[in-house]
Amino acid sequence: MTDFIDITEALGAYPGIEDANAFASYVKGRNVYKESLYLADGILFMVNKTDPFTKELVAVTAEPHLLAGLTTNTSIHTGRYMMARCPMNVANAYWFMARYKNLGPKSMKDSKVSIGLGDRLGLVTAGHVSSIRKASVFPVFAQQSIRELNLTGRTFKDVLADAFWGAFRAGWREGFGADGDHLKTAEEVRYALDSGFSMITLDCSNHIGLEREGGANAKPPSVRAQVSYRLADGTAVSFSEDEIERCTATYQRAIEFTSSIYHDLLVGCGRKVDFELSIDETGTPTDPKAHYFVAKQLADTGVPLTSLAPRFIGEFQKGIDYIGDIAKFREDFVLHQAIADTFGYKLSVHSGSDKFSIYPSVAELSKGHFHLKTAGTNWLEALRVVLAANPELFGQMYSYAKEHLDEAKAYYKVDVEKESVPDSVDAALFERPDVRQVMHITYGLLLNAKTETGEPLFRTRLYRCLRENEDLLRSTVERHIDNHLKALGLIWS
Ligand SMILES: [Zn+2]
Known about the structure:
Blueprint: H1 2-13, H2 20-27, E1 38-40, E2 43-51, E3 54-61, E4 74-78, E5 81-87, H3 90-99, E6 113-117, H4 125-132, E7 138-140, E8 142-145, H5 146-152, H6 156-169, E9 178-183, H7 186-194, E10 199-203, E11 229-230, E12 236-237, H8 241-266, E13 274-278, H9 288-300, E14 307-309, H10 326-343, E15 346-349, H11 359-365, E16 370-374, H12 376-389, H13 391-403, H14 405-408, H15 433-441, H16 443-448, H17 459-468, H18 470-487
Parallel strand pairs: 6-7, 6-16, 8-9, 9-10, 10-13, 13-14, 14-15, 15-16
Antiparallel strand pairs: 1-2, 2-3, 3-5, 4-5, 11-12
The structure holds zinc ion.
């Protein structure tokens, strides 16, 4: 409260809110985040830190009616202004995004490079902003799958609101993407759209595969055997009768499902929504011919994709570098890229964090036109901060994660056994791929773990630690994303 009163009293002597920069220099040294200052339509907004664990939005205006609809805790009149203290909650985030469309979710159409930055904790967007600012990249600050929502106990609205407030506080004013990731049903797509998301990633793995019922009874495909289809790079692709039969049995249901989701839900939802198709959650790499088969028919039924995620050759395990032959990856990528170029969308690289050895190839072979998804790596960076700031808490979390590894492996496929990882971890051991994977896949178990009396075992202390070490968290995440952007050739030094 003290700081708020200080600001209020200062304001009495202050000439006006119009000069936000002068105001910024005036409040320097207090608990206002200087980069959060935002003057629009006669209201000056700023984010104020009331204690190490709590932030609030402060709105100052000479016309209080402008704040109608914004939930306020208290308001004070001083001189010609009213100052309102407002909670940074979901409702107020949506009030903002409805009023200032430039600050919230928007389509990534026409962007060259875009990056998904899933934030499971809702705490690291400011770090993302610090890094993304250095490059010409479209950021998708809000990106979560239904699995992540279930494991973290959040809703799509929570995710978007957290990303919004993180971006707002850090001074990001250019809008961002919000991706409902790996959605599998019409209900899930509707849920993301109703929550204001700007991107839908449709995972049609439930409809892919020879064993799926009815695959062979799907509509006949528009792709024909013995026809030579030209690709953007001058090469051509053609199919034998057998290949058409196999592709039809495997993919035709998925194509029909994708088409119906697009036409029934995305068309007519009232705004431009980016549409990504994910066919990466399969047991084997996506055959480029199958990719063409899917892409051609979606184009024929009038479904414009923004991006498509094939399963590339090699292993894309969570939070660690690419495992596989880079020369083979390059050959595979070139074939998929030619198809993406033919139909005018980007390739999307899923489980894309920490794949440093292939980033130069992705940037080069896509000619700087791709989408990359990262998620769990941001959680790992948060844990890096816990390890530095509260090693005791980290040690308890690590032991728990190791103990419960097999439960997490039911959700996430990794090649790691609990017998082979160390019993305790320091900063050096934290870099080990197997240790990273243990901590990467157990986030849901760690966040939901309870004491015998039903209290959160780690969650409260984890959030407390990260909020107390906000600056370290921000710089740690910033450095990690910087490393990605450097390897992708998007920032120098
Ligand atoms: Zn995926």
